Amino acid sequence: MHPAQELEELLADGEELTIVCHNNPDPDCLASAFALGRIAMAAGIDEHHILYSGDISHQQNRAFVNLLDIDLKPFDPAAVQDRPEGSLLAFVDHAVPGANNRVPEGTPVDIVIDHHPNEGIEARFIDHREQVGATATILTEYVRELATEMDAALGTALLFAIRRETLGFLRGVTSAEYDAAGWLHEHADGALLRTLSTPSITGATVDAIAEAITNRTVRGSVLISGIGRTSERDALPQAADYLATLEGVETAIVFGIVEDGVQLSARSTDSRIHIGNVLDGAFSDVGSAGGHREMAGGEVPLGIFADYTTDDTQLFAIVDQVMTARLVAELNLTTEAETRTKADGEDE
């Protein structure tokens, strides 16, 4: 039986569906949740909710939610822990309670659909495919298999998510993404896709990216940069994407203080490095981190850092030293030559 049919049978026995996005959801997670909600409605579930925690701060993500009119609700623990009988709980684009989500560890999950590396996944229905480039690819397969009613909003959401997750079919892409995109092309709104691809950017995001450029440190082909405190969490992956294109750089890691934690974003084209494993090895004992071979992220609670000082400049000096030291040690860069670019453009 095709996984889509197994999922449909499970949904047909449910009365309500709660779909939980991972923290700070991206288009792949949002589009997958959107599609799963449509599949659930077709299977006879009248009520479903899409919950998220963290922020939707990236300008593309905000435009994505607003223009496609995706109905999101802030995460409510009671909606997960006090569900009535017949209510199903689903994870899309993440897999384990407590890992990149606010669902308490040990919470029973009914449905998991994900493409990220993970272990210890437990659910009544699991479709975990590390080999595909996007969770939206899996949901597109379901929509096709089940002949789910399509419209421009759903088609655009899934196609944009696949394009964004694979960086325009250049990162982690497989033949499944091309096949899904070819089919979705007939259902998507081209003008809306262009609008989503070129959203306006805030001044705070520009400032954060500029800070990452100024503070970059290069050891061999590895670039590490800390940007201090920022309100623009999604400036970190944008900065990592940009810095990874610098000549001679194969791995770029950017971190900064966002609210009460240190957020990280990393990119790598070095075949010797699995950047998800690098972040996991460096920070799994103090936070949560991981991801794919070429793209990863993480979060470390400020915790003890914040006990030293309330001054952001002094606080980040401590954070910068500790985070960089852990990354250097995990990447075995201690003997590599270092070039630090200062604000005045001089190297030391």
UniProtKB/TrEMBL annotation:
- Residues annotated as domain DDH: 18-161
Q: Which InterPro entries match?
A: DDH_dom, DHH_sf, DHHA1_dom, Oligoribo/pAp-PDE_c-di-AMP_PDE
**Superkingdom of origin organism:** Archaea
Against SUPFAM superfamilies, the record matches this protein to:
DHH phosphoesterases (SSF64182)
Q: Which residues form the DHHA1 domain?
A: 221-301
Q: Which Gene3D superfamilies has this protein been placed in?
A: inorganic pyrophosphatase (n-terminal core)
**Keyword entries, A-Z:** Hydrolase
Q: Which residues form a coiled coil?
A: none
Q: Name one Pfam family in it.
A: DHH
**Annotated Gene Ontology MF terms?**
hydrolase activity; nucleic acid binding
Q: What is this protein called?
A: Bifunctional oligoribonuclease/PAP phosphatase NrnA
Native species of this protein?
Haloplanus aerogenes
